[in-house]
C-alpha cells in the first residue's frame, strides 16, 4: 500500500493514534524507505533526501488533497534541543515542521542548516565596510 492511499483505507485520524510501519518509495530520489530506524512510530520523510509528500493537513490525518512534494528548506531546534526539518510544498506552498529521524542523512541536515551562513543577503567582501558604517572599527580581527 502506498502512503497516498492510506487516508482512503482507514478512518479519519487513524495515524494520529496508531503507528505506521508501511514502507514507501521516495518520489524524489527513488529510494525505498522503511519505518525501521526512524526512532519513532511515524516515518514521514525520506532519510536520504529529506523530502516528503503533502498528505496531511494536521499530523497524521491524511486529509490533504494536494499530494505535492514537500522539500526541506530549513532546520530549527526545538525547546529541548531536538532538531526539526522545515518542509515547503512545491505545489501549494504550505509549510510544515517534522522532527528529525534517527537515520536521517547528517550531511544533508548540516548543508540545510548552513545555507543561511553560506549565502548571506549581502556580499561578504563588504562586511568590514558595513561594520564601520554601524559604528564599529571595521576590523575583522
TrEMBL record:
Organism: Solibaculum intestinale
Protein name: RNHCP domain-containing protein
Classification lineage: Bacteria, Bacillati, Bacillota, Clostridia, Eubacteriales
Domain RNHCP residue range list: 22-110
Amino acid at each position: 500500500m502506498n502512503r497516498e492511499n492510506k487516508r482512503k483505507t482507514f478512518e479519519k485520524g487513524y495515524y494520529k493514534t496508531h503507528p505506521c510501519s508501511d514502507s514507501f518509495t521516495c518520489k524524489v530520489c527513488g529510494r525505498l524507505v522503511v519505518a525501521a530506524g526512524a526512532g519513532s512510530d511515524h516515518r514521514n520523510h525520506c532519510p536520504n533526501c529529506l523530502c516528503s509528500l503533502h498528505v496531511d493537513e494536521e499530523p497524521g490525518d491524511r486529509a490533504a488533497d494536494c499530494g505535492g512534494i514537500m522539500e526541506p528548506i530549513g532546520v530549527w531546534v526545538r525547546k529541548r534541543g531536538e532538531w526539526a526539518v522545515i518542509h515547503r510544498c512545491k505545489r501549494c506552498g504550505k509549510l510544515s515542521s517534522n522532527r528529525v529521524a534517527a537515520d536521517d542523512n547528517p550531511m544533508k541536515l548540516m548543508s540545510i542548516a548552513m545555507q543561511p551562513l553560506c549565502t548571506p543577503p549581502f556580499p561578504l567582501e563588504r562586511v568590514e565596510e558595513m561594520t564601520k558604517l554601524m559604528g564599529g572599527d571595521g576590523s575583522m580581527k
